[in-house]
Write a structure and sequence with these properties.
Strand content: 35-45%
Distance between the termini: 21 Å
Structural class: mainly beta
Low-confidence stretches: none
Order of helices and strands: HEEEEEHEEE
Helix content: under 10%
Oligomer: single chain
Length: 124
Amino acid sequence: MIPPNAALEAGWCTFLVEDGLYGLDVARVHEVLRPQPLTRVPLAPPSVAGLLNLRGQIVPAVDLRTLFGLALLTTPGGLVVVRSGDGLTALVVDAIGDVRRPEGARVREPLARSRPAARRLPGD
């Protein structure tokens, strides 16, 4: 079990990818957006969905389905823009959840069989 800390008390921004529910510390979330047009980047890795123009700031968008090795959806559910040491990154997700403040006893480390890509985020 993960011991309770300030990140758990502040809450997690949740989202869905395939059948998985994922969460990020709300302190790392810059904003949550409905699907936006992305500009494709020639010769970029397949997981780079494109670039997002966020009020004049260019933000790379990473498709989590591709990163996790899943089939693409025709319509993404939204974008979660996160802060990292490298700046902002938009995560393309299937559906946006809500902010949850789980009890520390209910939070567990990712399972060993979980997708390795789910354990890291850009800038970690």
